[in-house]
Amino acid sequence: MGEGQRFDPATVMNLARQLSRKAYVPPPNDLPDVFSNLNYDQYVAIKSQRQPIWNADGRGIAVEPLHRGFVFSNAIDLFLVEDGVVRRVTYDPAQFDYGRLALPANLGDVGFSGFRLVANSGDGKPFDFAIIQGATFFRAIARGQNFGAIARALTLKPADPKGEEFPVFRAFWLERPAIGSNSITVHGVLDSESTSGAIRMTFRPGDMTIVDVETTLFPRVTIDHVGLGGIASTYFYGPNDRSNVDDIRPSVYESSGLQMLNGKGEWLWRPLQNPNTLQISAFVDQAPKGFGLLQRDRSFEVFQDDDQRFDRRPSLWIEPLGEWDQGSVQLLEIPTDAEINDNILTYWRPKAPMTAGSEVPFAYRQYWCWTPPERPPLATVVTTRVGRGSVGRRRRFAVEFSTEALGENPPQDVKSVLTVGPGSFHNLRLWSYPERKAVRVGFELDPGNENACEMRLILEAGGKPISETWLYRWTP
């Protein structure tokens, strides 16, 4: 579906379907050396010299094609849809300022690696609200935020002994927004050794940027480890995990925890860690109502980082559209010794495999936000602190919950309910701080000879839960 043809979303679906019936062909490795050997600073020095597409048309949203180079080696075909007609975006070297790079005379058509979406809201302060670039990765932010967590259109076999499979985007068709519109619809084709797929994403930028994602997969082979609604982020260290840290900053992380609202209506909170060994957690569920990686710490003092401003990174909440069947929210925590690595990955893993030759549709809504639209009507965890215990291998924990109801007239019968297995806990105590609208729970974990202990903590009053459920896995 190329230059001058009428656009039909069904054609994108057919292209993906036809692709699945052919043998997988990896993207060509044809990036000129001058771009393939760039470091990060050299790559970001490549700047577009032209206004973003549709910028001067009063469309509300504009598009900026992104150059190939650095780790972004795969080329994508980029098309616009204007008045129902497809128009190809052609590569022109004159469109870019290459800084100090010495370009060969016969550069040719290098192509694009992706694109950036820019919102022109009419207040004189346009902002880049989304970037679609690399594999099947894309990022978005709410107004006033810095880019952080990365969404994955498809995750295949992460942490597999034979290696993870990384699908790629092949082509995109961007529908020109109506004048004054605050949304843009993007159609794409993705491909990998195991499956092809068609994707439709509708972006609505603002103080909370909302993205509706609709995907249909066409598996070439039966796949038993598929990740939907994938999110990658970074957790380097924080108050629960500061071993071997020598840094002026008290904390370094883009996301503080994994929030889940399971099919039974229970709110769960799992603080993130940078473990010494790979940790894989599975939270079994049916018909989940939502999950996501959240940045709950919005105070500069938590990070003391003038450059990265981790307090301005987005939370990303995933809400299924339509009922998802049995499966689990998977969490991978990967050891890292550098903050530049995305060492956290979460996604929904369906229990049933996707069979060869089938067509598998799924849809979800993303909220790139400061705070998700749906929040626990309960006390939430504001801090998890971990340190050396009193003797031996014991570890001391302090978990603080906060909500308005714990303020001036808190319940008098608040108690903490803690379970540990394997291992045991000691010195369980609770302190109430009405001036902070908070309750702090302290205890010591004694793992004995175990190398992994699962913990579960909740506040109760009047025999009923008054907090979300805190989950934690201790490992040495």
From TrEMBL:
Question: What GO molecular function annotation could you give as one example from this UniProt entry?
Answer: catalytic activity
| Cited Pfam families | MdoG
Taxonomic source organism: Microvirga brassicacearum
**Where is the secretion signal located?**
none
Name by which UniProt lists this protein: Glucan biosynthesis protein D
Localization recorded for this chain is: Periplasm
Single biological process term from Gene Ontology = beta-glucan biosynthetic process
Keywords, in A-Z order: Periplasm
Q: Note the InterPro entries from the entry.
A: Gal_mutarotase_sf_dom, GH-type_carb-bd, Glucan_biosyn_MdoG/MdoD, Glucan_biosyn_MdoG_C, Ig-like_fold, Ig_E-set
Glucan biosynthesis periplasmic MdoG C-terminal domain ranges (all copies) = 7-474
Q: Which domain of life is it from?
A: Bacteria
Q: In which pathway does it act?
A: Glycan metabolism; osmoregulated periplasmic glucan (OPG) biosynthesis
Lineage of origin: Bacteria, Pseudomonadati, Pseudomonadota, Alphaproteobacteria, Hyphomicrobiales
According to its UniProt record, which protein family does this protein belong to? Belongs to the OpgD/OpgG family.
Could you give one GO CC term from the UniProt record? outer membrane-bounded periplasmic space
